[in-house]
Amino acid sequence: MTIDRDEVDHVAALARLKLSDDERETLRVELGQIVTAFEALADVDTDDILPTAQVIPLVNVERDDVAIKSLPRDEVLRNAPRVEDGQIYVPPVLDETS
């Protein structure tokens, strides 16, 4: 498949790339080769292949949920830049007038 310059410009705009004329031509040729390689996949016989959403089996790698003693409150609050009423103060992120 041949890729024209307009398609290269469109892809470059989506990627927010500024390309020189030489880079545009190089990219046009390379994108054409990539699309041609993917078109070859259309010739692969997949009639006997079951659809799958995950090709690699997933395994749960989380650790057991074990309760442990937490840090003392005073030690945690000592590292906070600002504390009010025994809690870490976080400045508002949203405008309260809206």
Descriptive report:
Strands 1-2 form a two-stranded antiparallel ribbon. β1 and β2 (87-88) form a beta hairpin. It is mostly helical and 98 residues long. The protein has helices at 5-14, 21-39, 73-78, and strands spanning 83-84, 87-88. The chain has a domain at 5-43: Histone, subunit A (Orthogonal Bundle). The protein is built from three helices and two strands, in the order αααββ. The mean pLDDT is 89.
Short descriptors:
Histone, subunit A; two-stranded antiparallel sheet; single chain; 98 residues; 2 strands; 3 helices; mainly alpha
Outline of the structure:
With 98 residues, this protein is mainly alpha-helical.
Secondary-structure-derived class:
mainly alpha
Give the helices and strands as they follow along the chain.
HHHEE
Distance between the termini: 52 Å
CATH architecture of the domain at 5-43: Orthogonal Bundle
The major pleated sheet works out as: 2 strands, antiparallel
Spatial strand arrangement across the major sheet: 1-2
| Rg result | 28 Å
Strand content: under 5%
Total helix count? 3
Query: What would CATH call the class of the domain at 5-43?
Result: Mainly Alpha
As residue ranges, the low-confidence spans are none
CATH topology of the domain at 5-43: Histone, subunit A
Morphology call: flat
Q: Tell me how many strands there are.
A: 2
Helix content, binned percent: 25-40%
Mean of residue pLDDT values:
89
